[in-house]
Amino acid sequence: MKYLVAVHKDPDTGFGVTIPDVTGCFSYGDTFEEALDNAKEALAEHLEILAEDGVDIPIPGDQAEHLVNPDFEGALWAFIDLDPYDYMGKAKRINVTMPGYALKKIDDFVERHTKDHDRSKFLLRAAMSVMEKEARFDKGKEEDVADCC
Hints:
- The chain is α+β, with helices and mostly antiparallel strands and 149 residues long.
- 47% of the residues lie in helices and 15% in strands.
- It folds into two domains: 1-90, Double Stranded RNA Binding Domain, CATH 3.30.160.250; 93-149.
- A four-stranded antiparallel β-sheet has the order 3-2-1-4.
- Mean pLDDT is 86; it is low at 144-149.
């Protein structure tokens, strides 16, 4: 998954990096490339700590919101590609029952479209995606109620 990062050039030194979707995660580097490398390392360590503490792993949000956020005015934008699902704890084996046709469609899709050709990761990503969309929908409904009352 790609995390959007805001990079600010410090006129006297190097580059500071903020990861808007991960509160408290930031980094620095003398060069732009070093700043991004350090930010990826900082993000990985931050997600590990969150997982160890049993805190939900932040999933990248709406990029358009970050681009217009005044806190990031003048930022250079880049992405850090890191799989947050790798930080959700140890895998557990489960037994899932589904129609054979659906399983074949899933396996065919995974074979053609995913980089890791892993049915379990695909099902995890699909489930998380549905839950994230539902959470955003629920949050939107809460904001609508707060706006109207």
